Amino acid sequence: MPNILCCYKWVIDEAYIRTGPAQALDMSVVDYKISDYDKNAIEEAMLLQEKFGGSVAAITIGRPDDTKGLKDALSRGPQKAYFVNDPSFENLEPAQTAAILADAITGRIEYDLILCGEGSSDLYAQQVGPRLAEKLGIPCISYAVSINIEGSRIKVERKTEEGLEVAAAPLPVLVTVAPDINTPRIPGLRDTLAASKKPVEEIGLTDLPGPYEARVQTVGIKAASLTRNGQKFSADKAGVKALVEALQKDGAL
Amino acid sequence: MAGVWILAEYIEQSKELLNVGRELAGQVGVELAAWTWSADWADECLAHGADEVFLLPPLSADQGLDAYIPIIAEKARTIMPEVILVSSTLRGKELAARLAGRLDAGMASECQGLRWDGEKNSLLAERLLYGGAGVQTVSCLGRPQIATVPPRTYEVASRSEAKGGRLTEISGQPSSPVVILEHKSREHQTQDITRAKAVVCVGRGMENQQDLEKARELAGLIGGEVGCTRPIAEEMHWMPEDTCIGLSGKIIKPDLYIGLGVSGQIQHLIGTRDARIVCAVNTDENAPIFAGADYGIVGDINEILPMILEEIGAVKK
Ligand SMILES: Cc1cc2nc3c(=O)[nH]c(=O)nc-3n(C[C@H](O)[C@H](O)[C@H](O)COP(=O)(O)OP(=O)(O)OC[C@H]3O[C@@H](n4cnc5c(N)ncnc54)[C@H](O)[C@@H]3O)c2cc1C
Ligand SMILES: Nc1ncnc2c1ncn2[C@@H]1O[C@H](COP(=O)(O)O)[C@@H](O)[C@H]1O
Predict the structure, then answer these.
(1) Given an 8 Å threshold on Cβ–Cβ distance, is A220 in contact with B137?
(2) Which of B36, B56, B163, B199 is paired with A13 by a 20 to 30 Å CA distance?
(3) C-alpha pair distances (Å), A246 with each of A253, B124, B298
(4) Which of A101, A63, A76, A60 is nearest to A194 (CA)?
(5) In this complex, is the C-beta atom of A137 within 8 Å of any C-beta atom belonging to chain B?
(6) Distance CA A56, CA A45 (A)
(7) B302 CA to middle of ligand 2, Å?
């Protein structure tokens, strides 16, 4: 009966980001969300628990006020959450995140399987999972599209450039999941109510050995300009004709 | 001593990395070394500018690429290269991140541009952030500095006059607790969508798989290829994954892109940024694709696509 731990990140919803003056990112109206593919990680944990029993917990590293994410994560099924938080846990780079996760987990959380998303929605570095496996000294299988547990080992279909590799490893293992592995559930009102009654264990910076120094420094961020002057044509024969004429004029046909 | 290392799963990508690696090695004033596990590829690397090639022992049938991590990490600890560049295929990305974890090194993922900052004596890397809404420039602190580079970001290095690069056979047992039980190949696109001059992109707004035929017909008319969004490839499995356009797929640069039922989320749009003309048909006038399009029609592809086929068919005749 596996104990499963899912790592999720609470991120800025990129759909709210606008381009400000001088190619700066305008974050004045942003909202937050659970990193998209971490929903697949949590869902997969729940599906595995349905099949094999055991327990599911979620863990996140963030700022103390990122509590909305806990409720969201718990409403997706996990029985417990670990909230590793400190005001300085903002804009962490993957080496730091992996180091903090490893220290928070070691000696505190029992696990047979750790699930991560293939990459976070904001950084999409695709590093934290593999780095965490290295820090914990456990096998790592990435970009999984199906997971099966056979006794004390795990069997995973993972994506490669040529197709799929069926890989197996003895538990405990860290797996990063690709979004095609499942379709995350949409939590209902009951799930949301249940979530607020579930236990959350807080872990602060003082509970951790630290310090956690960045290995990568951000020198600058600018907005990527993607906007074009969209000209609209009517949804009829005349519109289509005008569109095709425009394309011809541009030499695009 | 080799200062810039490159590593790729495929020889084509090795050559691309040798190109940018040569430039960096020149700026840093160090040698350029390539890792490979094929004697043929080793020769190819030497012929494309590597000063040294590290030839790894072959893997057994049930071993994956990760079995090389202990050997490469060990070598990195003794030599301490300045920079390690890894081509970001799926296995390459995992290998690079684990190497970085093992060496406690900084790593920049999926870099679109690499430069050497002579003043700070460090690698500067440009990469996307927030699904493509932002471009981040990072510098790695400490050594080695690791970066992954998407395939086809750089041209392949040109063949150089043989100038006697060294071949170094690396001893050691590849090992990993992960065993590979089976390889399953999946359908592939024979045409490289990144080189297509026109691309018709299918999104989830297409309701029936049969309608793909119409998209193909349109692509045929304009002399291009059919591409798709991530859900079409990975959820619906209608199209091979190497036709997916965007952040986790391909960055395309055709003359003309036509999006059919594509919402145009930032992760997709970033893949069409370099297209000359972007054109979209979507029922939702607020779909973000219209902001990133030169021309748009707010309408149902079931009605509009046949009209486009007819109209373009007429002018092409
Ligand atoms: C880390 C990360 C990486 C990602 N990488 C990629 C990537 O590389 N590539 C990619 O594509 N996505 C990527 N995505 C997913 C991306 O965010 C979007 O979810 C995806 O692009 C949406 O695909 P879609 O437009 O086909 O589907 P939807 O968003 O569902 O859009 C369908 C559209 O079709 C329209 N429509 C419906 N019916 C019709 C009709 N009859 N006629 C015309 N229009 C119709 C709808 O109005 C809607 O706008 C990534 C996401 C994350 C989090
Ligand atoms: N702050 C965080 N807290 C918990 N898990 C995280 C955090 N950041 C990243 N992860 C996990 O690591 C995965 C990869 O993140 P990244 O390396 O940033 O792309 C995510 O999908 C999460 O599963």
Answers:
(1) yes
(2) B199
(3) 10, 41, 17
(4) A76
(5) no
(6) 6
(7) 40
Look-up of token digits 């606008």: A18
The verdict on the CB of residue B270 being under 6 Å from ligand 1 is no
- In angstroms, the CA A237 to CA B70 distance is 63
Other Cβ atoms less than 10 A from the Cβ of A54: the count is 15
Residue B178 and residue B141: Cα distance in Å, rounded? 31
- Give tens-digit pLDDT for B2-59: 699 999 999 999 999 999 999 999 999 999 999 999 999 999 999 999 999 999 999 9
CB contact under 8 A, A233 and B296: yes
pTM of the complete model: 0.95
Tokens of B189: 């696109």
- Is B101's CB within 8 Å of A222's CB? no
Q: Which residues contact A234 (CB under 8 A, 6 or more apart)?
A: A242, B297
Neighbours of A183 (CB within 10 A): 11
Q: How far apart are the first and last CA of chain A?
A: 60
DSSP strands (E only) in chain B: 2-7, 31-36, 52-55, 83-87, 107-108, 111-117, 122-129, 134-140, 145-149, 166-169, 179-185, 198-202, 225-228, 256-260, 277-282, 295-298
Q: Is B283 exposed, middle or buried (0-12, 13-18, 19+ CB in 10 A)?
A: middle
In order, the DSSP letters of A187-214 are --HHHHHHHTTS-EEEEEGGGS------
Report the residue of B86, B289, B295 to disrupt the A interface, i.e. the one with the largest count of A CBs within 10 Å: B295
A116 CA → ligand 2 middle, Å: 7
- Please state whether the peptide bond connecting residue B174 to the residue before it is cis, i.e. omega within 30 degrees of 0: no
CB atoms within 10 A of CB A150: 10
| Contacting residues of A for B295, CB less than 8 Å apart | 230-233, 243, 246-247
Q: Tell me: the pLDDT tens digits for B229-282? A: 999 999 999 999 999 999 999 999 999 999 999 999 999 999 999 999 999 999
